[in-house]
Amino acid sequence: QEPEEKKIALELLETEQAYVNRLHLLDQVFYTELMKEAKTGKTVPEEVVKMIFSNISSIYQFHAEFFLPELRKRMEDWNRNPRIGDVIQKLAPFLKMYGEYVKNFDKAVELITAWSEKSPPFQELIADIQKRKVCANLTLQHHMLEPVQRIPRYELLLKDYVRKLPPHSPDRGDAEKALEMIFMVAQHSNAAIAEMERLQNLWVVYQRLGLEDDIVDPSNELIKEGPIQKISTRNNSTSEKYLFLFNNMLLYCVPKVIQVGAEFQVHLRIDVEGMKVRELKDTEFPHTFLVSGKQRTLELQARSEEEMNTWIK
Questions:
Q1: Rounded to two decimals, what is the model's pTM?
Q2: Domains of the chain as residue ranges with CATH
Q3: Sequence-distant (≥ 6) Cβ neighbours of residue 122 within 8 angstroms
Q4: Is 300 helix (H, G, I), strand (E, B) or coil?
Q5: Euclidean distance between CA atoms 127 and 242, whole angstroms
Q6: Contacts of 274 (CB under 8 A, 6+ apart)
Q7: Of 171, 147, 18, 22, nearest to 88 (Cα)?
Q8: Which of 24, 68, 107, 120 is 20 to 30 A off residue 220, Cα-Cα?
Q9: pLDDT in tens, 65-106
């Protein structure tokens, strides 16, 4: 009867072998053959193939030439030296390479779809490779998902391994440290995705605002946006406006009637620094609040009390 922790270590080795085969298929078969065709100029631009496969070559080489052989050596020597924690500690920092691949994954899948429609030879070549036995009737997209799922898999296996280790195992300290490192890398990869989404959403907002150069700044954070009524005390009326609140500025905008390019025209920027906001008790215009900043003071009316409160907050 093998000890539990050895079974898990063996499972890690077996899944790593299968994973390296999958990476080989992605890098040495799909990527290499699509690249070869791209160079002839008949299917798709080389740039597109590179964008689809991101940094898969580095990931493949790392696992095939370093991690898998190290793991194999360990398992052959298990009875004399039952430990894998230190090898995984060496692996963990390199897993940050996955940030790039994971971040690129959705874009890669979109590119495959778009170019399969645009370029029949590209689609045919992929279909050809997919028919081979090594593909096991699975699509390129399916194989590409594997690296995205690999880090969470390490985390689960290692958690299990640490749980099953005898209290005085010589590998306990290393394995616990390795688990912590893998956990940090998984966080890093999630943070990379979150940051990419934040930048994409920000870019969409900037396009709606007509890409005014003094507004476009990648470090800005959009906090809230929405329609608002502007109260004109002069003639006691309201007009429809739109607000974008960033961490550093409030943009007071007018919706464009003819939406060519931008959706809004920025009428006014008020710096958040030194800005004051308070509710106004106005019987004629309910749910009204006052925003006063260095540049200007605005009387604004929300559609409901709840909406007014979220703006003020």
A1: 0.67
A2: 4-209 (1.20.900.10), 222-312 (2.30.29.30)
A3: 34, 37, 43, 44, 115, 116
A4: strand
A5: 49
A6: 293, 294
A7: 171
A8: 107
A9: 999 999 999 999 999 999 999 999 998 988 888 888 988 998
